[in-house]
Amino acid sequence: MPILFLLLFFIALPLIELYVLIQVGTEIGALSTILLSILTAILGTALVRHQGLSLLMRVHRQLDRGETPALEVLDGALLLVAGLFLLLPGFLTDTVGFLLLLPPLRQWLIRRTLPLAPLTPGAEPPREGPRVIEGEYRRED
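The structure assignment produced for this chain is given below.
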C-alpha cells in the first residue's frame, strides 16, 4: 500500500500538475500562469509563517502550564506539509496546501487519524480494564 501511494505521489501527481498548468496556461497565458504560481507560493509561505508562529506561541503556553503539546505537534506537522505543498509548483498542490492552512480541517484530520486522542486540555482517553491506584499500606491488628 505505501509503495502504491509513493508511486502515485511521485509519478501521477507531477503529470496531473503539468496537465493543469498547461490548461491554465492556454487560458490565461504562460507568463500569467508562472506569475500566479509564484504569487501562490509567496502568499502561502507568508500564511504558513504566520500560523506557525501562532502555533509556536500555543506550544510555549502549554509547556509553561506543564501540559504536553501533543496535538499541537501534529498540527505543526500538518502545517509543515501545507508549506511543502505550497512551495511545489502547481495549482493542485497549492489547493491542497491552502486547504491544510484551515485549522478546522487540520483538527478534523487529526481526529480522523487518532480517534482516541483527547482534543480538550486535561481530558484523558478512555481506559480499558480496572482502575489501579498505586500506594503503600500497613495493616495494623
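Interim note for the steering committee: The mean pLDDT is 86. The CA atoms of residues 77 and 106 lie 10 Å apart.
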